[in-house]
Design a protein that fits this description.
By secondary structure, the protein is an alpha+beta fold. Helix content is 23%, strand content 29%. β12 and β13 form a beta hairpin.
Length: 280
């Protein structure tokens, strides 16, 4: 459906990951071997927390309906800024129209959110799910995607207080409403959320056959494994990437996130936690 990348660590130019790797996110927009669709050309988004921004500050964002591979502004901006945490997403529209408000990442205050996947048969459940969004948050839904409704459901469920529980509660609501409407497998996807300090990366589907998701091994270990790879010197010791597909073919450089798991990444490193149970 889409492809995405999140970075956290020492500040760097986002182009280092968005443009430069052999299998960068922009390259994935043209050719995504592990994706449900090989081409993701229905718009993109790039959002970043500026270097030196105060804790809790809102991120900046640039979105466009142009294909990522064709947009010169993405190249200019990603080379001009530096950021310790950023998201980027390339879209393959699965039904909702191609318009800027439907491009990820979505933003609310200091939170960023993006999704690769689908709420199955969303047209049958959209009304009930949208009406479950807190009335104070509902006006902030600007587009027509299932992903944006999912984000605002998670905000309603307490994303700012307990991100893992809130995303889990939002998905359980989606499954409950979907099952009541006769949808066998209501939820599919990988999700990234951040408050500017931590990245939570979820892999889950009702069917137990989720979209692919990987994150990088820690940089000091990779330097020991590959002392001759000069590119690793670009990254600080705390640099971490979570991405829909590996950015290179170095064995051991990227670790797959298991099904029904959330990967939590911050300056202390990463760890995995069980997330929901597809059989529940």
């Amino acid at each position: 459906m889409c492809r995405w990348l999140a970075y956290t660590g020492e500040p760097l130019q986002p182009s280092t990951l968005i443009l430069d790797p052999v299998h960068s996110v922009v390259a994935m927009s043209l050719n995504s071997p592990l994706g449900a669709e090989p081409v993701n050309g229905d718009g993109f988004g790039f959002a970043w927390y500026p270097e030196g921004a105060a804790h809790g500050a809102a991120p900046s964002r640039f979105r466009s309906i142009e294909p990522a591979w064709h947009d010169e502004n993405l190249r200019e901006i990603s080379r001009a800024v530096r950021s310790p945490l950023f998201f980027t997403h390339v879209r393959a529209a699965g039904g909702p129209p191609i318009q800027q408000t439907n491009c990820h990442p979505f933003r609310y205050e200091n939170w960023l959110f993006m999704h690769n996947g689908v709420i199955s048969q969303f047209a049958q459940t959209k009304r009930d799910l949208a009406l479950a969004v807190d009335p104070s948050l509902y006006p902030h839904i600007r587009g027509t995607t299932d992903s944006e409704v999912l984000f605002h459901l998670a905000l309603t469920m307490g994303l700012a207080d307990d991100p893992i529980k809130a995303v889990g509660d939002a998905i359980r609501m989606i499954e409950s409403v979907g099952h009541a409407a006769g949808v066998k497998f209501p939820m599919q996807g990988t999700i990234a959320a951040s408050d500017g300090e931590t990245v939570w990366a979820f892999r889950y589907s009702s069917q137990g056959q989720s979209r692919t998701l990987f994150h990088s091994a820690d940089i000091p270990t990779l330097r020991e494994m590959y002392p001759d790879v000069e590119r690793l010197a670009t990254f600080g010791d705390h640099a971490q990437v979570v991405v829909s597909e590996p950015l290179n073919d170095l064995p051991g450089a990227f670790l797959e996130v298991p099904e029904s798991t959330v990967a939590v990444l911050d300056r202390t490193g990463y760890h995995h936690e069980p997330f929901l149970d597809a059989a529940a």
